[in-house]
Amino acid sequence: xxxxxxxxxxxxxxxxxIYNQLNIPTKIITNPVDLKTxxxxxxxxxxxxxxxxxxxxxxxxxxxxxxxxxxxxxDILGICVGMQIMANSSEEGQxxxxxxxxxxxxxxxVSNFTQKPYLPHMGWNTVKPLNDHLIFQNxxxxxxxxxxxxxxxxxxxxxxxxxxxxxxxxxxxxxFRDNIYGMQFHPEKSHSNxxxxxxxxxxx
Length: 204
Prior knowledge:
Structural class: alpha/beta
CATH architecture: 3-Layer(aba) Sandwich
Helix content: 25-40%
Distance between the termini: 13 Å
CATH topology: Rossmann fold
Oligomer: single chain
Strand order of the largest sheet: 2-1-3-4-13-12-11-8
């Protein structure tokens, strides 16, 4: 059972619909008790860093998420801002992040960009995995994934970089540490590649 964390941010139903098509059971998580009933977790996110962290803190879910992810080692997949709040902090806001994967979220430097509009980075882009991790298996590399963001995750430890993409410069488009995974792009908007990635996550 995959729990999709509903704390007021993210494309909850779109993710649930994909898993329904794959005949993989999901549960929408709205309280700490529900968190204990699932095997894996998805942490979606849309919007600004501080607003997203504020929603998560006010939801009452953070403490139980820390327990399940850091101590019980349940697999979790963060999407877009749901990935970014796994960092320690962000240039976009003042609040602390979850600190699950050491790093800082930074705004793209547009000084070397050649085409307007510079930001947000929006649309399809290729993603280059740095190893043959199961979560990226059976992908159409030419199709890529769908992005909408102006900030990127800079890992303190390069060993936590799972994949990179190019936009102006190379940036980290996927992070991981142990049971924790993050994708800057939106699998739920990425057609067959996104469906495959969500299925791969379920099989980890």
